[in-house]
Structure formats: C-alpha cells, structure tokens
Amino acid sequence: SQQGEEDPQALSIQEGENATMNCSYKTSINNLQWYRQNSGRGLVHLILIRSNEREKHSGRLRVTLDTSKKSSSLLITASRAADTASYFCATRGAGSYQLTFGKGTKLSVIP
Amino acid sequence: DTAVSQTPKYLVTQMGNDKSIKCEQNLGHDTMYWYKQDSKKFLKIMFSYNNKELIINETVPNRFSPKSPDKAHLNLHINSLELGDSAVYFCASSQGSRGSGANVLTFGAGSRLTVL
Questions:
Q1: Interface with chain B: mutation pick from A33, A41, A56, A98, highest number of B CBs within 10 Å
Q2: Which residue, of A12, A44, A84, B58, is most buried by count of CB atoms within 10 Å of its CB?
Q3: Is pLDDT at B36 greater than 80 in this prediction?
Q4: % residues pLDDT > 90 (chain B)
Q5: What is the DSSP string of A37-64?
Q6: Do the Cβ atoms of A97 and B97 come within 8 Å?
Q7: Do B41 and A98 count as a contact with CB atoms less than 8 A apart?
Q8: Does the beta-carbon distance from A42 to B45 stay under 8 Å?
C-alpha cells in the first residue's frame, strides 16, 4: 500500500534559496529515508532518519521527523542548479522487508 | 565500476512479445529488488529476493517472473507484453533484508520498456 506522500508535487525556486519538501505517511515506521532522482537516472540515497530521531543533518540537507504527526520534512539550504531533481521519501515499517516510496516532489532550481 | 547494472537500458517491443531485463550487483549485498516506475513517477515494489529466496511478491500479473540464479543477479522476465507494461523498471540492492542492514537501497539506472 502507498505509504509516503510528498508535498508539494512540484517546487520552483531561485538558486541560493532554501527548498523545503514534506512527506506524510500512514502507519508506524522503523525509519524514513529520502532519495533523489535526476532525470533519466536511478534513485540515489540521501539521508536516513530513524523513528527515535527528530532531526538529522548531512551537508546542506536537514531532515526532521515527527512521528506523532507521521510526517517528515527535507530542507535543502542554499540550493544550486545541480539540486534540480525529483525527491522521494521512503518508509520502512517495523520488521518489514519493504521500503515504500512516495510520489515525489519535483524540484527545479533556476540559475 | 557500476554497483548495480541493468541491461538493456532501453527496450522497444511489440505487444504479445516476451522480454527479459537483467540485473547484476557487485556490492556483495544479500537482497535485490525490482521496482516499477510509471509515467507519473510512482515507484512500486514488485519483487524482492534475499539470498536467492523470494521474500516480497507484490500483486503483479503472473506474466512477470523474477529469477535469481545467485545473490548477485536478479532477472525479470515478462511474457505476453501489454501496453500497460510500458514503464521504467529499476533494479536495486541492499545489505540484508530486515533490521539495520536492510535500510539503504542502491539503484540501477533503470530500463525503459516501451510496448507498442
């Protein structure tokens, strides 16, 4: 069943601005991950946050997780044209084999 | 060296034909997956194998059959292709299948299937 839902579906910003994408999910999770997909390419793992964590940083990426609201956000600071891509959240339920992806947010960073 | 490689990258075929997509990973991972991405970018799990054993088999038509000759390979065979099978098929792998080792997927570049 579909788990994560990203919001917005599409986002267009100027280079240098921050980009925020949100993800909501429906059931209890073990962890939540964010992936990036450049046009015509496979998905690349960006960052993982476990259910007992609230915030995580990796370079210009900041991820938050609110398990009470079943939601997560991905913040990309000081965006660059090379950040143009689709971003997907994915959730893994406790004891589950399966990683379930949302529909993605398409980010366009205008130089 | 490509970590997860799929062949072919593009496949154009007629309805009713049978085709295969091959996937190989050189990461030493235990688990491999097939995902289907439709035209709206929705990514859906199809199958997963852990050490050659089928562990995920989502509701897909019987025309789709995965085969894993060893833990480094997971092929996808599709019989009697239909228009609705047109999509991008992604192979992925991960270390382990549950628990901390199963957390991160490494994807191949995708195989775009077009059925005419």
A1: A98
A2: A84
A3: yes
A4: 72
A5: E-TTS-EEEEEEEETT-SEEEETTEEEE
A6: yes
A7: no
A8: no
Percentage of the residues of chain A whose pLDDT score is greater than 70? 96
Amino acid at site A86: S
Which of A40, A48, A104 is opposite residue B104, by nearest beta carbon?
A48
Q: Would you state the pLDDT for residue B100?
A: 57
Which of B35, B104, B109 shows the shortest C-beta gap to A41?
B109
Could you tell me what percent of chain B has a pLDDT over 70? Answer: 93
B39, with CB counted inside 10 A (0-12, 13-18, 19+), is: exposed
DSSP chain B: --SEEEE-SEEEE-TT--EEEEEEE-S--SEEEEEEE-TT--EEEEEEEETTEEEEE-S--TTEEEEEEETTEEEEEE-S--GGG-EEEEEEEESSSSSGGG---EE---EEEEE-
Out of A43, A48, A100, name the one closest to residue B103 (CB).
Answer: A48
Q: Is a pLDDT exceeding 50 seen at residue A1? A: no
Cα of B21 to nearest chain A Cα, Å: 15
Count residue pairs from A and B with Cβ separation < 8 A: 57
